[in-house]
Amino acid sequence: MAIGLNINGQTASKLIKKSSEFASPKFDGLKMIHSHYHKPNKSPLNPEIETLQFINSGKIQSEFSTRKFQNGDRFEVYRLPDEVIKVLKNKFGEIKAFKSSIAQHNHKPAIAYENAKNAMRSKTHNFLA
After folding, report:
1. Phi and psi for 113 in degrees, rounded to 5?
2. What is the pLDDT of residue 11?
3. Is the pLDDT of residue 113 over 90?
4. pLDDT-derived band of residue 2, with 50, 70 and 90 as boundaries?
5. pTM of full prediction above 0.70
6. Percent helix, strand and coil across the chain, each rounded to 5?
7. Phi then psi dihedrals of residue 61, to 5 deg
8. Confidence of residue 61 (pLDDT cuts 50, 70, 90)
9. For residue 8, how far is the Cα from the chain centroid?
């Protein structure tokens, strides 16, 4: 028996997944998938985890994911074709931790974060417009 390992303790709660898939009217093979995960006893309008993926010919081109914690903190991941950005924000939206796969962007996290947000916003707008 492993000492210090509590296998009889509380396990992670189950989440319900809801997904919507949209095909692009402009480009063949391009689709957007919006998924959110919520607890069975909570409203799906306030998800624990939310993802937005842009898929072209079966391959993920870009992705945004966010996870809310009980204390109000939020963890966001932006997976772009040339970079992966991970951001931990407090409940007031202030950046607590930042990590980019491009080392130079770690020196100016606010600018890199805004650029990633704008890139995903632009992709969503162009897809739906």
Report:
1. -65, -45
2. 60
3. yes
4. very low
5. yes
6. 20, 45, 40
7. -90, -45
8. very high
9. 31
DSSP 8-state class, residue 3: T
Asked if 32 and 127 count as a contact pair (C-beta separation under 8 A), the reply is yes
Which of 90, 54, 56 minimizes the C-alpha distance to 71?
90
Q: How many CB atoms lie within 10 A of CB 17?
A: 12
Query: What is the per-residue pLDDT across 62-111, written as a single tens digit (0 to 9) for each?
Result: 999 999 988 999 999 999 999 999 999 999 999 999 999 999 999 999 99
| Beta strand residue intervals within the chain, DSSP E | 16-23, 30-38, 49-56, 59-68, 74-80, 83-89, 95-100
- Nearest CA to 54 out of 46, 45, 64, 44 is that of 64
DSSP string, 52-76: EEEEETTEEEEEEEEEE-TTS-EEE
Q: Which tokens belong to 35?
A: 């998924």
